[in-house]
Structures are given as structure tokens and as C-alpha cells.
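User: Here's a chain of 159 residues. Predict its fold as C-alpha cells.
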Amino acid sequence: MSLALLAAAPAVHFGFTVPTWSEAAAAQDAYRNARDSRRGTALRLAAAQRRAAARARLEEALRATSQVPGDEVSLLRREAIEATRVAGLTGVRLEVASGRGPAAATLRLAAAGPLSAVAALVTNLPGRHAVVLDGARLEPVEAGSVRIELQGVRPVAGS
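Assistant: Prediction complete.
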């Protein structure tokens, strides 16, 4: 009887225990993959929530700036905010002031984003929003991302 048990022990070990270990290892791998996926999803969700909150603040700022007929400063501010939002830029700093002489308003803008988004802003702002660019400076900030600082003016209508 004991010889039969001794002979059966390796069969049980290799027939049951070893496959169970490999199933346990596969279950651990599946759990690790699910955990990593959950973490990645949580990070993407947090980033999306931050973007949504920033978008809500931007929309509130757009609503807060009331446009008085002929108020070029408010109009240029709203258009610059909208142009940076559409381009998808981040870290936006914006200064808009009344202009002198042939300039109805002056603009100073700094923002960061992918080169394609910065190029879209530089193309869109003068074309659609009647801003004459006075100067621009680009500098790389991280892989695939650049920071732009630009100055421009909106001419007085009819000049």
C-alpha cells in the first residue's frame, strides 16, 4: 500500500500540482494586466476631468467678458481665448490692452502645445480674427511640444 502511494505521489504532483501552479501564474498575470489597465484608465479619466474643468473655467471666462459694441479689447480677448481653446493649447497666458494710433487693441499671448496646434493658432489668429502679428518666439518644452509667445495688434477698423 505504501509503495502504491509512493508511486502515485509523483503522478499526483506532476498531474495536478504543476498545472495548478501554471494556472495560478496565469491568474496572477491576468490580475496584473487588469490592475495596470485600471490604473491607466484612472489616469486618463483624471486628465479628461482636468481638461473638462479647464474648459468650464474658460467658458465661464468667455461668458464673463461682456462685449460692448466697439469694445475691441473685449472682442479680441474673447477671440484669442476661443482660438487657443480650438487649437487645444495649454498653459495660456493672455494680455489684451487698448491700442494707440492705428492699433485698436494689442495682444500678448503665451501658450504651449503640439507644434501642429501652435501652427493652427498662428494661422487662425491673423486670418479669422484680424490680428496683425508683431512678433513670435517658439521654444521646445518637451518631446513634441513647443511654447509660443506672440505679440500682435488689431488695427482700427478701416485703417
